[in-house]
């Protein structure tokens, strides 16, 4: 199916279809220079499947993991484009997860002040979340997403078949974001998580999540207001993720933890059950000062006050301005098992 | 006077007024964290005049010259913003020439995916040209403006008083761009250059040049068509500027040379007289292979064909697609004295 993102001049289509990678050229204009950016954790065969459909193609493989979202790698992608004589009319295609999409999207936005960018996300997390919405970024000095651009792809191809090779923990990582979206915006999706077999409902989970994100992004492309609901669970989640000693945790795992303090008690009980079903952590013991420090380097901070998103009832949300200290106290009281 | 740039959501005002730097806070919102980016060639007193109007201010000084438009300096500006806890609601102010404006504008566009950017250009070249239009960039591997963003400032303050300290050669450097704009778009401005004392007509030259640029940028913000007329003289000009052994020449000096092959013979004679009056070079002996190589790394290239702008009659222009080789032959025939 096709989901149309309606963003004026920046509009684009998301194609969700099993096997779409194999026929990418029906959807993408590959009749020009193509830079495929992928990472060492993605099966080679994915980039190759795309490469075989291109006339003139360069494959750039970064090391899997968050450390590749660096200024240095950003420079290397730009240099690769330059060395291979890419013009303003050529394009970049991301074949990988959020790291690859964020890095190569930012490079595409900057190269000659913007060349076409396509995204073929290969993880569940990037299929339902980071591949759409146009947020690209790199990290700096250990702080996530310090520099980047709002830059919309020209098209996104989502092939759920690609998830067959995805490790179980990466799957859970993506499910966490789907649960997040269900909690603020889609009661039925949350009930699906509670009642149904998740694997056999994967396409539905992807499509419902995309539709939630579509609706939010269309109303608030540049993240000035409503889009904050997508940050549900992220204030504490980013703090956990950014704090040095927590580098072993995945983004979704951190967000899952970060959601719990933001839910009303009865909702929280239901969330805990769903997280259990998805093999996600439900509690955390840690040095909260370090998490607090990392959390509030976060860009959503304005002075000492942050806007948090609370879920009092499944499928709805409340935004509230609180101090950083209050967020940490809340997180500590819930997560310190 | 105020020139309003009408670019929809990205609209902004350019204030042209002698002494406006001293009362910048009447025009800019300085009641927040402010990063002033300046360079070692700009009188200290300029950044200080602005700093004294801020509550919370950091001054970042880069080395004067094109080498500061690097990925490394881009990273350092971002790191400075991060280390001083700048949020999305704070701002960056450029106090300097095109290098400072391009570098800090790109950093402002990228930091947290975009914070407010003000520009206070201190050279004639940046006052009439690079400070408006929203093109920001850095260089890479010796190639100019490889990476950047279209990012409009929130306001531009143009204080012609600041030009009093500008070296004569820098003045000529700016006049070259004004002559360029006159040639394609303003016959009267060109006649002013031919007949009047330039120094005593400086404010008029600035304002007329800004109005030409305003009109072009408003019609073509993202440089898809019409904006190419601003590139008159730049295809060859960039080639001269980018070729390694020519690093001694200023941008405007290169553009002045680059315009000559693009003018019809009788127009060229008039241009040569005006360039002489402004102390700009009129001829060049050089290794044309190197210039050709540098010229066609240029982003306006598409395959082997480039669009050049020709002036057959003062105040009008013609766009023409020619091969790279034809451009070089034309340049050689005119410039090799």
Describe the fold and architecture.
Two copies of one chain form a homodimer. Chain A is an alpha/beta fold and 337 residues long. Chain A is 41% helix and 19% strand. The first copy, chain A, has twelve helices and eleven strands. Chain A has helices at residues 44-51, 71-83, 98-110, 124-130, 168-185, 187-195, 202-219, 234-242, 251-259, 265-277, 288-295, 324-335; strands at residues 2-5, 12-16, 33-39, 56-62, 91-96, 116-121, 135-140, 143-150, 155-158, 305-310, 318-323. In chain A, the strands form three sheets. Chain A has a seven-stranded mixed sheet, sandwiched between helices. In chain A, helix 5 packs across helix 6, helix 5 (168-185) packs across helix 7 and helix 8 packs across helix 9. The longest helix of chain A is centred in the middle third of the chain and has 18 residues, at 168-185. The mean pLDDT of chain A is 91. Chain A binds chain B through residues 71, 74-75, 78-79, 82-83, 87-89, 106-107, 109-114, 135, 137, 140-141, 143, 145-150, 222-223, 297, 299, 301-303, and chain B through 71, 74-75, 78-79, 82-83, 87-89, 106-107, 109-114, 135, 137, 140-141, 143, 145-150, 222-223, 297, 299, 301-303.
Outline of the structure:
Chain A is built from twelve helices and eleven strands. The first copy, chain A, has 337 residues and is an alpha/beta fold.
Largest interface: A-B, 36 and 36 residues
SS elements, strand count of chain A = 11
Distance between the termini of chain A: 43 Å
Helices of chain A, by number, come to 12
Class per helix and strand makeup of chain A: alpha/beta
Overall mean pLDDT of chain A stands at 91
Helicity level of chain A: 40-55%
**Oligomerization state of this entry?**
homodimer
Query: Approximately what portion of the residues of chain A adopt beta-strand conformation?
Result: 15-25%
Major β-sheet of chain A, in short?
7 strands, mixed
**Over the alpha carbons, how many angstroms does the gyration radius of chain A reach?**
19 Å
Arrangement of strands in the largest sheet of chain A: 1-2-9-6-5-3-4
Stretches of chain A where pLDDT is under 50 for at least 5 consecutive residues are none
Query: What is the overall silhouette of chain A?
Result: globular
Taken in chain order, the helices and strands of chain A follow as EEEHEHEHEHEEEHHHHHHHEEH
